[in-house]
Design goal:
The structure holds two protein chains of two kinds. By secondary structure, chain A is of the alpha/beta class. Chain A has one domain: Rossmann fold (3-Layer(aba) Sandwich), CATH 3.40.50. Chain A is built from five helices and four strands, in the order αβαβαβαβα. In chain A, strands 2-1-3-4 form a four-stranded parallel sheet, sandwiched between helices. In chain A, α2 packs across α5. Chain B is an alpha/beta fold. In chain B, 43% of the residues are buried. Chain B has two domains: 173 residues, no CATH class; 126 residues, no CATH class. Chain B is built from ten helices and eight strands. In chain B, the strands form two sheets. Chain B has a five-stranded mixed sheet. A three-stranded antiparallel sheet of chain B has the order 5-6-7. Classes of the chains: A alpha/beta, B alpha/beta. At the A-B interface, α3, α4, β4 and α5 of A face α6, α8 and α10 of B. The structure holds iron/sulfur cluster (3 copies) and FE2/S2 (inorganic) cluster.
């Protein structure tokens, strides 16, 4: 049960989220969301990569180490990856990484994976809404430090 | 003490005929523990030792300069217990070493080896390398100037041995039964405890103790990268200073690099000077890889790394759809 002050702190908390978007689909989707003038929360810092399969778990870890509260990896839908199966490899990597984080007591929900195509501006805005809301609910990430008690 | 006569003869033949460039295997160390030994001449074969106490991280030397230093591409002979043939398989599947560079002398009927740290805790007065006999469910330890002591096997077994489900080499060029091998009794085959989820507070206590000596990486037979990300300064994947945060990053990267390859041999944990529960992490990831992708490292010398392939039936990695918005 959150105390009223905690609740206020949580309501004011604006998470920092790093989003790795693949050049061919998700980045184009984000672009479309922009040209369609859709609004979505401004918490994401976008990094464009050539393919979601380009995202080494080490990148995700770096973000969490350097102050991100959450990380999003987004690529093309299954079967649409421009490098054939980069997104399937990303899927395995993210899944395994989430299992390891969970085991050492870090909420796996801080690392998210989604598929957004270049034609899905609306979906991109919804993905960001969803990710920001979920990470807000998790609260600030301790950045692998001791929790203040 | 040395190895059974037939094996001794085999190893000497291999070396004197020039069929192999050297033999790698376990030997008695200084004090009650094993060490790795590399024999280049037939005479040096004398030092090999197969007692359950002579266990050492032999395979980490396979990919090292020392074992490879040779003119021709003659194979290295390895004395390998069953779990070590599993690690060899993994190294073969990664092409860290080629099959024709290996001559595997498999040791059959393995019932597990002794953890020298547990032995020293149990018998701190031991000096030198004691005689060890296996009698039913006990090890009989006979140290210098000491009465023989019987200790139940399960109090001394190495952690990786409890729960081990292979007792014969997975492959070999020659095989020899271990001296007084007897089938594993049912009581021992019970599995190692499942690693449990302990939460961040527990793991923070652990990672905080790490002194970043890099021994866990150096001891791992699969950490043979010439250019390791943990050493890199530019880009610096893991900041060098020792702190909870950096130690955690170090360990998570190491574990992720080994997920799907690690055979849970436990050498990382054995090497750690501050006893971090690294085998727990290794076992957890081994279990996850099996559960998620049905992948088991070290059983298929032709196998692909599970992180470099996919299956159309892979479990969903995205949970956006499920939340139905
Ligand atoms: S248990 Fe440790 S030493 Fe053995 S393969 Fe796994 S990470 Fe490497
Ligand atoms: S930690 Fe990673 S990069 Fe370093 S040696 Fe091991 S597998 Fe290679
Ligand atoms: S062996 Fe132990 S102390 Fe050394 S770097 Fe690894 S975990 Fe840290
Ligand atoms: S190109 Fe978009 S995921 Fe590979």
């Amino acid at each position: 049960m959150l105390s009223p002050t905690d609740e206020r702190a949580q309501a004011e908390f604006e998470p920092t989220i790093v989003a790795f978007l693949c050049n061919w689909c998700s980045y184009a989707g984000a672009d479309l969301a922009g040209t369609q003038r859709l609004t979505y929360p401004a918490n994401v810092r976008v990094i464009r990569v050539m393919c979601s399969g380009r995202v080494d778990p080490g990148y995700v870890l770096q973000c969490l180490l350097q102050g991100a509260d959450g990380v999003l990896v987004s690529g093309c839908h299954h079967g649409d990856c421009h490098y054939v199966c980069g997104n399937r490899i990303a899927e395995r990597r993210v899944t395994v990484m989430r299992r390891l984080l969970e085991f050492v007591g870090v909420e796996p929900g801080r690392v998210r994976l989604t598929w957004v195509s270049g034609a899905e501006g609306r979906r991109f805005a919804r993905v960001i809404d969803d990710v920001v809301r979920d990470i807000k609910a998790l609260g600030p990430f301790h950045g692998f430090e001791r929790r203040a008690s | 003490m040395s190895v059974p006569a037939a094996l001794d003869r085999h190893l000497r033949d291999l070396l004197s005929s020039g069929q192999v460039r050297c033999v790698l295997g376990p030997a008695a160390g200084c004090g009650p523990r094993g060490t790795a030994h590399l024999a280049r001449t037939p005479e040096a074969v004398d030092r090999f030792e197969l007692s359950p106490l002579a266990c050492a991280n032999v395979l980490v030397h396979l990919t090292s300069e020392e074992a490879r230093r040779d003119d021709a591409r003659r194979p290295v002979a390895v004395l390998a217990r069953p779990c070590e043939t599993r690690m060899l398989n993994q190294l073969l599947s990664e092409r860290a070493i080629e099959r024709d560079e290996l001559h595997v002398v498999g040791l059959g009927g393995c019932r597990g080896v002794i953890d020298s740290r547990k032995l020293r805790e149990r018998l701190p007065e031991l000096r030198g390398f004691p005689e060890v006999r296996e009698e039913g469910d006990t090890f009989v330890i006979e140290g210098e100037g000491m009465e023989p002591v019987s200790v139940p096997r399960n109090e001394l077994l190495l952690d990786r041995c409890s729960g081990c489900d292979i007792s014969e080499p997975l492959f070999h060029d020659h095989t020899f039964p271990l001296a007084d091998a007897a089938p594993t009794s049912a009581a021992e085959a019970e599995c190692a405890p499942e690693p449990s989820d302990e939460g961040w507070d527990y793991w923070a206590d652990q990672f905080e103790r790490c002194i970043r000596c890099y021994a866990c990486r150096d001891a791992c037979p699969l950490c043979y990268c010439e250019d390791c990300v943990l050493d890199r300064l530019r880009p610096m994947w893991v900041p060098r200073s020792v702190s909870l945060k950096n130690n955690t990053a170090y360990q998570l990267i190491r574990v992720l690099h080994l997920s799907g390859r690690c055979t849970a041999c436990g050498e990382c944990e054995q090497a750690c000077p501050v006893d971090l529960p690294l085998l727990t992490l290794a076992r957890k990831m081994e279990q996850e890889m099996r559960e998620l992708y049905g992948a088991r490292s070290g059983f298929d010398p032709e196998g692909r790394h599970p992180m470099s392939v996919f299956d159309p039936n892979d479990p969903e990695g995205t949970d956006f759809e499920e939340q139905g918005r």
